[in-house]
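Q: I'm writing a short methods note and want an example of a predicted protein-small molecule complex. Could you take the sequence and the SMILES for zinc ion and return the bound structure as C-alpha cells? Please keep the output block clean; save any remarks for afterwards.
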Amino acid sequence: MTMMRNIFLLLLPVYASALEVELPTANHALYSPSGEEQFFQGTAGHDWHSGQYGSVRSGGRQFHEGIDVRFLERDRRGEPKDRVVAIADGEVAYLAAIAGQSSYGRYALLRHRWNEVEVFSLYAHVASFAPGLRAGQTVKRGDWIAMLGHSGTQNIPKERSHLHFEVCFQLKRDFATWFAPKLAKGDRNDHANYNGINLQGIDPAPIFLAAHEKPSMNFREHMESQPIAFTALFPARRAPLSFMRAQQWCIVNGPEPAPVTAYEVWFMAVGVPTFVRPRTDVTMPSARVLSVNEPAVNACPARRMVERDAKRRGWQFTHRGAELMEMLSFQ
Ligand SMILES: [Zn+2]
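A: Understood, no commentary inside the block.
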C-alpha cells in the first residue's frame, strides 16, 4: 500500500510554503528533552501519558481526542493565569460561550488553511475569551484568544486546570441537517455544524514537533504520510461530497473519461480521509470495506471503525464505522 501511495505522490504538485505554528500557551516543555511531564496534564490519579492524544484512558478503551496542556501560573485564588493564543493565522470559526453546553466547556474554534488543507484548532475548558473576540474575525499566529481554565460539564478541579487542545477536521459542512433526525426527543444540537461528533481530531503533538524541528514542514505532506488504517469504496451517488469539496487536496486524478462509478477513500484509523480516488471499474450498493491495515487499526483500539466479521472471512464496519460512512455519504 505504501508503494502504491508513493507512486501517486509523485503525480502531485509540490507545495513549498512551510507551516508556521506555535504552541497554544507559554508552556513549551514539549520541545524540551523529557519535558512531557511538565507539558501534559494527566487525568486524576494518572501520569502525563493520559494527557496525550489517543487511546490513552481507561486501559486504552477510552479515546482522548486532543492533548491536555498544563498551566504554568496561577493567581492568589489558585486560578490559572496562562494566556491561550492562536497557534497559527486563521479565522474564528465558532465560539462556544456557554460552558454548560459541552464537556469541552467554553471553547474556541479557529479555521486554518495549511498547504491547501482545511483544518481547525480547538481550545477548550477556557475561563474566558479575549475581549472583543468574535466569530468571523481573522487572527494572527500568537494572538491572545482566551484564558486557560477548567470550564466544562464535568467538574475539573482548579488545580487540574488545563487547556484541552485539538487539531481537527470538520467531517461534514452540513452536519446539522444529517444529525437533526437522530436527536432524541428534547435534545438539542447546540453547536450545529461544530458539534464534537463532526470534529475529528488528529494528534497535534507531532505537528508542533515537526514544525519546530523542520522549518520547512508542510502540512499536506504530513497528512499524506499518516498511516492508512483502512480503505473503503463508496458508490458514486453516495460519494463523501461535503468532505471532498472542503478538502480538494486529497482527491487524486482528474475527471475520468469513463463515468465514475465509485470513490475509493483511504482513512486514518480515527476516520479522517486522506485520499480519494474516483473509480470507473466497480459498482456496489453501499459503502463497503475494501482493505485493512490491521496493525494501524489495532494501534487505535478506542476508535475502531472496522472489525473482522463473525466468520473471520473478511472485514466489516463497526457500528461507529458504519455511522461515519453514512454521515460522510449523506447528500
Ligand atoms: Zn482533554
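A: Remarks, as requested: Residues 64, 66, 68, 164 surround zinc ion (CB under 6 Å). The chain has two domains: 29-213, 226-329.
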